[in-house]
Amino acid sequence: KKMWDYCRTNGLKVVRKIGNMYYGERWTVKRGWRSYDDQFNYLTNRISQAKDRPELLAWYLNDEPRPALRPKMLRQQDLFATFDPTRPTKSVFDHPEYVRGFLDTFDECGLDPYPIGRDPVSQVSDWLTGLKSGATGVKPFGMVVQVFDWMWFRMGKNMPTPHFPTYRELRSMTWQAIAGGTSSLWFYGYRFFGCDYGKKDFDRNFAMFKRVTTEVRKFIPVFLSVEEPVKVTVPEKSRLLTRAWRMDGDTYVLVVNALGEGARAELKLSERF
C-alpha cells in the first residue's frame, strides 16, 4: 500500500508484474498450486486489489515465455480482458522469432536483447528487424534497454567483457530502439544499480543514465506528434536506422549508426529542403 500511495502522490504510474504465474510450472508448484482454480483465485485476488487504483497503468504478465506456455497465456489474456478490460497487458520476449506466434496473448510486447558484455550493441537493431518481419503494425512493441552489469547476476563468467553500459552504449541502444519504431522504452533494472558497487560507482552510473534519458525526454513531444512525417530512405546495404517526425511544421530526422565503425551513406528525403 505504501508503494502505491507513494506513486500516486508523486505522479508515477505502475506496471504491475504478475510474472509467468501458471499452474503446473515449477515456480507455482512450490506455491502448492495443483489446478487452474488455484491460478484463477490468485489472479482475481491480485486484480481486485489493484484495478481501482488510478496509478495502475498496465499488467506485466509474461517474462521471456517459451512456446509451450502459449495455451496458458491465451487463457490468461482472456481473464484479464474480462476482469480489467481498460488496461493493457505486456509480455517481454528474449526471442524475437517467438512473437509472431503469441500475438493474441498480449496487448503490447517487448524485447530484451541485453547485448552489453557479450554481443555487439547492434543486436538491438538486429532484434528489431526480426520482430518487424512479423509483428509490428499489428501490436505495439517496446524495447527493454539494458541498464545492468551481467556480473550482478553472477553470470559474468559466461560473458567476454561484463560491465555496466558506457554512456555511448546506453545511448546507442536507446536511440536504436527509437529509430527502429519502438512505442515505449523500458529500462532494466533500477534495483540493480547498487549491486556490487559502492556509492561512487552508483552515482556515476545513475548520472549517466539520467543524462541519456534526459536527452530522450526533451523530444517526447516530437515523438508523440501525429503530423505526417517526411519519408527517409537509405541504401539497401546500409545498416543505418532512420525515423522522422513533423511537429508544428518542423521536420525532425533521426539517424542512428548501430555499428562500431563509421558509416558513409546518402539519405534521401521525400521533400526538398
Helix and strand layout, with pairings?
Elements: H1 2-9, E1 14-17, H2 26-29, H3 36-50, E2 56-63, H4 70-83, E3 89-93, E4 108-111, H5 123-132, E5 141-146, H6 167-179, E6 184-188, H7 199-218, H8 220-223, E7 232-233, E8 240-247, E9 250-257, E10 268-269
Parallel strand pairs: 1-2, 2-3, 3-4, 4-5, 5-6
Antiparallel strand pairs: 7-10, 8-9
User: What sort of overall outline do the alpha carbons produce when their principal axes are compared?
Assistant: globular
Sheet with the most strands: spatial strand order: 1-2-3-4-5-6
Helix proportion range: 25-40%
- What's the pLDDT, averaged over the residues? 90
Main β-sheet description: 6 strands, parallel
Strand content: 15-25%
DSSP summary, beta strand count: 10
Count every helix, treating DSSP H or I runs of 4 or more residues as helices. Answer: 8
List low-pLDDT spans.
none
List the helices and strands in order.
HEHHEHEEHEHEHHEEEE
Q: Separation of termini?
A: 55 Å
CA gyration radius, whole angstroms: 20 Å
Q: What's the oligomerization state?
A: single chain
SSE-based structural type: alpha/beta
Report on this model:
- α6 (167-179) runs parallel beside α7 (199-218).
- The longest helix has 20 residues, at 199-218.
- The model has no long low-confidence stretch (mean pLDDT 90).
- The chain has 273 residues and is an alpha/beta fold.
- It is built from 8 helices and 10 strands.
- It has helices at 2-9, 26-29, 36-50, 70-83, 123-132, 167-179, 199-218, 220-223, and strands spanning 14-17, 56-63, 89-93, 108-111, 141-146, 184-188, 232-233, 240-247, 250-257, 268-269.
- The strands form 3 sheets. A 6-stranded parallel beta sheet has the order 1-2-3-4-5-6, with helices on one face. A two-stranded antiparallel sheet has the order 7-10.
